[in-house]
């Protein structure tokens, strides 16, 4: 090796060995991905609101005050009151709990189940892969909203049934994407080495193949949270989701979208803004996660 080549190699090794502290790395990421940082800020604000709803809200979200119905935004009621006299700001803050609960639970279970099924389908192949993928094709043939509507119509309204209805469509979407990545990983020699050592199929799938497809899994899980929030709001607006008096953004839209559009428009405007910001924030954050985890996009 020439002297110049040796110096270059030593410089690359030294550069790789020096790790930036977390603070400068976070600042550098914010500078490179300002929209992703803005999305993360929205997500953090939602989590803060949901966690400290009892502290930052002055009223009970479930108590009706019929002497204060349809009051416009003021110093007493920052975002006004609804048709039952309940403070809209309080309902929106508590509604963040419902949105995040549905979003995180459905995205976690749906993406997790899709991860396992996708890796297992790629690992076993053959008839198992063929049958499983045809089942996934059947589910993916239906639009997301239509499939969720069908499931919740069978199970009935309620937050638990809504989470089941939203989780089911997420599974085939994640399984299909993860399978495409796992097919390439299956051909890597360390998988054959694990088989030769006598490791069980579950250990190879969960410990050797699963961690290597975590990048698309995280990207899909982040995107699923925003989709789940929007889908839950849609189902609640149609009367098939969360039921009164539980605070939920879609349910708030149902109560004020048409009847009070002219006399008290704030009943529908502010929940709509909350839904839009939540979905917008998770989408921006998901795009940033994709760019950071994808080597091709990360180098641009």
CATH architecture: Orthogonal Bundle
Q: What would CATH call the homologous superfamily?
A: MetI-like
Shape: elongated
Give the C-level CATH assignment. Mainly Alpha
Descriptive overview:
Helices cover 74% and strands 0% of the residues. The protein is mostly helical and 300 residues long. It has a single domain, classed as MetI-like fold. It contains 14 helices and no strands. It has helices at 3-17, 22-32, 34-51, 53-56, 88-124, 126-140, 144-155, 159-186, 189-196, 201-209, 214-237, 249-256, 266-293, 295-298. The chain is elongated, with a radius of gyration of 24 Å. Helix 3 (34-51) crosses helix 5 (88-124), helix 3 (34-51) packs across helix 13 (266-293) and helix 12 (249-256) packs antiparallel against helix 13. The longest helix has 37 residues, at 88-124.
Throw out a few tags for this protein.
300 residues, mainly alpha, MetI-like fold, 0% strand, elongated, disordered N terminus
Would you spell out the secondary-structure blueprint of this structure?
Layout (H helix, E strand, L loop, with lengths): L2 H15 L4 H11 L1 H18 L1 H4 L31 H37 L1 H15 L3 H12 L3 H28 L2 H8 L4 H9 L4 H24 L11 H8 L9 H28 L1 H4 L2
Helix pairs in contact: 2-3, 3-5, 3-13, 5-6, 5-8, 5-11, 6-8, 7-8, 8-11, 9-10, 11-12, 11-13, 12-13
Outline of the structure:
The protein is 74% helix and 0% strand.
């Amino acid at each position: 090796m020439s002297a110049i080549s040796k110096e270059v190699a030593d410089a690359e090794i030294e550069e790789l060995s020096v790790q930036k502290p977390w603070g400068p790395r976070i600042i550098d990421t914010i500078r490179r991905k300002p929209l992703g940082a803005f999305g993360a800020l929205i997500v953090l604000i939602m989590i803060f609101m949901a966690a400290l709803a009892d502290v930052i809200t002055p009223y009970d979200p479930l108590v009706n005050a019929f002497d204060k119905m349809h009051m416009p935004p003021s110093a007493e009621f920052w975002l006004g009151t609804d048709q039952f006299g309940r403070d809209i700001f309080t309902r929106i803050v508590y509604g963040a709990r419902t949105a995040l609960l549905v979003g995180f639970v459905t995205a976690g279970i749906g993406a997790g189940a899709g991860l396992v099924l996708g890796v297992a389908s790629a690992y076993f192949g053959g008839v198992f892969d063929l049958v499983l993928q045809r089942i996934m094709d059947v589910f993916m043939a239906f639009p997301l909203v239509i499939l969720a509507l069908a499931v919740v119509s069978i199970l009935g309204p309620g937050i638990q049934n809504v989470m089941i209805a939203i989780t089911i469509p997420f599974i085939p979407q994640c399984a299909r994407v993860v399978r495409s990545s796992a097919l390439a990983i299956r051909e890597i020699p360390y998988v054959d080495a694990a088989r030769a050592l006598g490791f069980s199929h579950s250990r190879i799938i969960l410990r050797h193949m699963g961690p290597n497809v975590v990048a698309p899994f995280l990207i899909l899980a982040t995107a699923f949270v925003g989709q789940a929030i929007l889908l839950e709001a849609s189902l609640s607006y149609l009367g098939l989701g969360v039921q009164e008096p539980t605070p939920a953004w879609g349910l708030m839209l149902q109560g004020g979208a048409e009847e009070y559009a002219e006399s008290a428009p704030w009943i529908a405007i502010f929940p709509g803004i909350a839904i839009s910001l939540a979905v917008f924030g998770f989408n921006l954050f998901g795009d940033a996660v994709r760019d950071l985890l994808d080597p091709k996009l990360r180098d641009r």
